[in-house]
Design goal:
The chain has 367 residues and is an alpha/beta fold. It contains 13 helices and twelve strands.
């Protein structure tokens, strides 16, 4: 463990075991908080999430491992209701799913649910894809003829986890500093957390009443060019917005004849002329490797990003230098590479990786 971590001395108890509460608690754990997963007899549901590495649930989920490094695991049934109440009552932060559970928390209770209490979606059974569909995020992504491309994985839940972390940390620190003397209950809606991805579109529709049409792959109005494109070797992410970026982009790719076209001085104008620009642009991309183009773009102040495949991910130099990937150690001793905490404090750095507790491993410490 790293010494003098920022959140050392803070106790967090998670009784929900969702991806959202798991990620919220993960950031606390990464920065030194004492995090207890208070699990049911069969373990949190994250223990059953694929892929399973080196064995079977409840101790082999790679997803659970990423969420649970340096946390303790206590089985609620093994220690009994009275001890559960004590652990929760002494916690600085309790994470749950918003359902009533009969426990009192003397500090901060932070609830993360799909749609929060009240409102027309209150009783919906949520999913990540459903949240993105309802907030309009996927409506315009994909081929013109459809269907839209659905995002996979747990992005919505992770977004809610970091949203809840921000609010929860503020209230926990308020208590530490003496600025909050009473218990407080915070509610985070996964759906509402993800509206941050489409707020500009919602404002635009409110003001104009116009709905944007789906324009195809790598078409994200009003910015153009914007997307991920193949190179001779690898893939490059492109965002060209300002006139100066456009001029530098054209010079880099040898498209000088397009740089000064009046229509192309705005991203909207370039989008209108995409059928002229894109074939030439893609042809020039094929003459570069993605890594070479990325570094040339950096030197010219063009926002380009190398987009690695899963096989290339661990070899990206900036990821290696920043310790973007770290190791989680499963209960059977097997290790796997997982993403480390996304933001850094340098005077009080986070832990990078660590052990993942077997189900109920620490129950004896609290019996």
């Amino acid at each position: 463990m790293v010494q003098d971590q920022a959140l050392a001395g803070i106790r967090v108890v998670d009784i929900s075991g969702s991806v959202s509460t798991g990620f919220c608690a993960k950031v606390f754990a990464d920065y030194g908080a004492d995090v207890i997963n208070l699990e049911p007899e069969g373990g949190f549901r994250t223990r059953n999430l694929a892929p399973l590495i080196g064995g079977t649930a409840p101790n082999a989920s790679a997803m659970h491992a990423w969420l649970s490094t340096n946390k303790k695991s206590v089985r609620a049934d093994a220690i009994g209701p009275a001890q559960c109440a004590t652990i929760i009552g002494e916690a600085d932060l309790l994470l749950d799913d918003g359902q009533e559970h009969g426990f009192d928390c003397g500090g901060v209770r932070s609830s993360i649910s799909w749609y929060g209490r009240g409102g027309p979606y209150e009783n919906f059974v949520g999913t990540d894809a459903q949240c993105f569909a309802l907030n309009g995020m996927i409506r315009n992504i994909g081929p013109i003829e459809g269907p839209p491309i659905m995002t996979a994985g747990y992005q919505a839940e992770v977004t809610a986890g970091i949203t809840a972390y921000t609010a929860s940390l503020a209230q926990v620190l308020a208590g530490e500093l003496g600025n909050r003397r009473n218990p407080v209950h915070i509610e985070t809606s996964i759906f509402e957390s993800c509206i941050c991805f489409t707020d500009v579109g919602a404002v635009g529709f409110h003001n104009s009443g116009l709905q944007a049409s789906r324009m195809g792959i790598n078409r994200f109005p009003p910015t153009y060019p914007l997307g991920v494109f193949p190179c001779r070797d690898g893939w490059i992410g492109v965002t060209v917005l300002t006139p100066s970026q456009w001029h530098s982009f054209c010079k880099l790719l040898g498209m000088d004849e397009l740089a000064e076209v009046p229509l192309f001085q705005s991203s909207v104008g370039r989008l209108q002329a995409r059928d002229v620009i894109e074939p030439l642009m893609c042809e020039r991309f094929e003459t570069f490797s993605a890594e070479d183009l990325f570094y040339k773009g950096q030197q010219a102040a063009i926002p380009l990003a190398r987009v690695p495949t899963m096989e290339e991910l661990f070899e990206v130099d900036q990821f290696q230098i920043r310790n973007a990937m770290t190791e989680a150690t499963l209960p059977d001793g097997e290790t796997l590479r997982v993403p480390s905490v996304a933001f850094r404090l340098y005077s009080t750095p986070p832990s990078f990786g660590g052990p993942v507790a077997a189900l109920g491993q620490h129950s004896g410490d609290y019996a």
